[in-house]
Amino acid sequence: MDVIGFAVCVGNPEVHARRALRSFARVREPDSVLAELTDATSIHAAYNEALDHFAAIGELEALVLLHEDVELTDRGFCDRVRAHLSDPEVAVLGAIGARGVRSLAWWAGEHVGFVREPRGEAGAPGSSGPVDAVDGLLLALSPWAVRELRFDADTFDGFHGYDVDLCFSARAAGRAVLAADLGVVHHTKGGFGDRAAWDRCDARLRRKWGLDADGPQPGAAGDPPPPARVADGDRPPAASLLVVLDGDERQALRCLTAISDLRDDQPAHEIVVVADCSPQLDGLLARLDGDVAVERTERPAGFSAAASQGLARCRGEVVVLLHGAPEVAPDFLAPLLAALGDETVAAATAVSARDPQLAAVAAAALAARRRDLPAPLPTAPPGFELAALCAALARRGAVAPVGASRVGRAQRPDRQLRRPPSGGEIELSIVIPTLDAAGERTRRCIAAAQATTAVDHELIVIDNGAPPQGFTAPVNAGLRAARGRYLLVLNDDVELLPGWWEPLRAALDAGAAVVFPETVDGPMRRDFAAWCFAFARPTLERFAVAPGEFLDPELVVWYQDTDLLERLRRAGLPPRWVEASRIRHGLSQTVAAEEPELRAWVARQVQADKAAFEAKHGTGVAGAAR
Fold this sequence. Notes:
By secondary structure, this protein is an alpha/beta fold. The chain has three domains: 3-189, Spore Coat Polysaccharide Biosynthesis Protein SpsA, Chain A (Alpha-Beta Complex); 235-408, Spore Coat Polysaccharide Biosynthesis Protein SpsA, Chain A; 428-617, Spore Coat Polysaccharide Biosynthesis Protein SpsA, Chain A (Alpha-Beta Complex). Helices cover 29% and strands 25% of the residues. The protein is built from 19 helices and 28 strands. The strands form four sheets. The protein has an eight-stranded mixed sheet with strand order 16-15-14-17-20-19-21-18. Strands 2-1-3-11-5-12-9 form a seven-stranded mixed sheet, sandwiched between helices. The protein is globular and about 85 Å long. The N and C termini lie far apart (64 Å). Mean pLDDT is 85; it is low at 215-233 and 411-422.
C-alpha cells in the first residue's frame, strides 16, 4: 500500500504535542509514518535528513513537512494531498503561496491557497493553483521531489529561506508548485523571527537566483500574511516585552512559550530578546517567529547591561522587562498597561502566581513608559536589578503592584547557601581565584555556584589583583583555607550548570584522583580542562609539591595545570573526564586583562613560566602549550 509520510522539525515539544502531533493522529492513514526531527540549528539539515530517510521507501506517495505549530483540521487531508499530487508534473504542494515572488517576502505577491491564523486569514477559501513559491509551514512533496531535491544547507543556515529556495529549485527542474486550501490553521504570531537572520537569507536567495533589486523589499512588504495586517507594519506596538536570557535553554523555552500563548485580546506587542553571551540558545532563537528582535552580547554582561542594549531596539510606548525568564500568564499584559494609564504611576509590576503578596521590588516583571526608563538601566547585584529600577522610577511616581497581572518565577534550583551545623563537616569547598572579586564576571560565577550546588559547601574567593599574584598563589591560599572533604578549583569565568557536582563526586568516590567536567558551547580539552577540576582531600595531601602548596609556586600564571597533569600521569592517576558533569567556560577571560600594564605583566610571566616548566619536565610533555 502507498505511504504518505510526515516529518516535523521539533523545537518546542509542548507546542508540537498540542498541534502537529494531534493533527497527525487526526489525519493519519494506517501506514502513515511520522518522523520527529530535532536539529536545533538548521531546518535545512533537519529536512534533508527526512528526505534521505523517506527516499528509501519504495511505496512513498508523498512526504508532508510540517511546522510544529500547524493544525490540520480535515480528516480527509491525505486524500486532498493525493489528489493534488496525482499530476506527475507537480513537485511541491503548499497551503498558501503566491505568484510574482521576487524575494523571501513571498507574501508580497498574489496569494493562492488558504490558511487561517490567530490574527486573521490569508488567501481565499477553496482557492488553488500554480504559484512561484509556497510558505514552508506545510510542504507536501511528490516522490520525485523527495528523491531529486534537497534543501540548500550550504547556502542557507538557520530557519529561513528553505521554502522559497526549494520551490525555485523545483520550477528550475521543469516541475510545478501548487498552493491549495488544505484545511490548515497556523498557530503563529507572524513576523520575521530573528530579522537579522531573515535579511541574511533573503540576500543569499537573491544572489543565488539572480533576483533583481527592484523586487519587493522586506521592509516594504510589511509583516508576513494575512494581508490585513500589512497596514500595521510600521505602527509601533503598544508594548515591548524585553527578555534577557542567560543560557538556561529549558527555562528560556518555557518563558518564550508562555509569551507565545498570550491571549489574542492582549494589547499589540513586540518581543525583544537579548541573549547574554549564550550561543547555546542560537538554535532556539532561530526558530522564533512573531514580531521578535534578537540582540546578543559578546561577553557576559548581566541583566542591567543586557537589558539596556535591548532597550534600544524597543519601539513600544511601554516596555515590560522580564527578569529571570519567568512564565507569564496568558492575560498578564493588559492589566499592566491599564495601570500605567494613570499618569501618577511610574511603574507597574506583576505579582507572583505563587505569592500574590510579594513586594514590587521582588517582582519578575516590571512595566514602565519607555520615556521614563533611565539609560543605561541602574546596575545592582544579580537578582536585585528590578529592585534598583523600582527605586529609580519611584522618584517619578508610584510603583504599583498589579494583582490581576501574574507571572511564575523561573523554576531554578534552590539558591539558599547551605551551612552545616556548628562543628559539622563541609562536603565541598569551592576555590575561586580572581582579579576582580567585585566584578560582574565573578558575581555571575558565584551566583551559578550557589544556584547549582545542593550540598553543604563553602565559597572561597581569592582576589589577587592588587598587586597581581598570578593563578597559583591564590589557588594554593584558597586550598589552605578550605575545610571541605572535597575541593573544587574554579576559574571565575566558568558557569556551573545544574547537576554538575554529583557525577564528579561519584567519579572521585570510584577512585579517580582528579576529575573535570565537560565544557559545553566552547573549546574543550579531554586530557585536563583545568579551568574547573575537583579532588578529594587525600589527593591534596599526596600531590602537594611542598607543605600547603598543591600547585607548583614556581609556575605563577601558566603551566601549573600541565605540571599537575604530568605529576598525575607519572603516578598512574591521570585526570578523569566526567562527561555527565557540564559547565560553560569563557575561554581565558580570567587572564584576559584589559589594563595594558597587567597584560604586559601576564605576557612576561607566561614566558618565565614556560622556561621554568621546560627546565622541570623538558620540552616533550604532551598537552603543554607551545
